Amino acid sequence: MAAPLQDEDWLDAKLHDEMPYIDDDGFTSRVSQELPVRRRSPKMRSAFLLSVGVVAAVIAYIVAGGGSFVMDVLGWFAVMPLSVLYIITIGCGLLVTAVGVFFAVSRSRKVRS
Questions:
Q1: Residue 95 pLDDT exceeds 90
Q2: 28-66 burial by CB neighbour count: b if 16+ within 10 A, else e?
Q3: Are the beta carbons of 70 and 62 closer than 8 angstroms?
C-alpha cells in the first residue's frame, strides 16, 4: 500500500521541479477575491433535487392511472409465452451489461488521462 503513495509523491515532486513559478503580481489572488460567494450549500441542492424527484414521481404515478398500469403489465407478462419472457430477460441482461461496459471503459479512459 505504500507503493502508490511513493509513486504519487515522486510524480508530485517531478511536477513541482519542472514547473517554474510565474509571478503574476497578485493577479490570481485579486481574481479569487472578486469571485461571487457561493450562497447555497450542497445539502440544500441535494434536498431540492430530492424533493423535485419525489414530486415528479408522484405526478407520474397519478398520470399513469394511480398504479393500475402495474396490474396491466403483470397481466400482460402472465399471458405471455415463456420463450418471449426468456428473450426479454436475455435482452435486458445484455443491455445492462453493455451499458456497464461502456461506463467502465469511459471511466478507465478518464483515470488514465
A1: yes
A2: eeeeeeeeeeeeeeeeeeeeeeeeeeeeeeeeeeeeeee
A3: no
Contact between 67 and 61 (Cβ < 8 Å): yes
pLDDT value of position 109? 77
Overall average pLDDT of the 3-17 stretch: 67
- For residues 70 and 86, state if they share a domain: no
* DSSP class of 24: -
Could you tell me if residue 9 is inside a domain?
A: no
Under 8 Å CB-to-CB from 77, ≥6 apart: which residues?
85
Domain that holds residue 70: 43-79
The answer to whether position 88 is within a domain reads yes
Q: How much is the pTM?
A: 0.39
Tens digits of residue pLDDT in 23-78: 788 888 888 888 887 776 778 888 899 999 999 998 888 887 777 877 888 888 88
Phi-psi region of 91 (alpha: psi -120 to 50; beta: other; left: phi over 0): alpha
Residue 10 lies in a domain: no
Q: Is residue 101 part of a domain?
A: yes
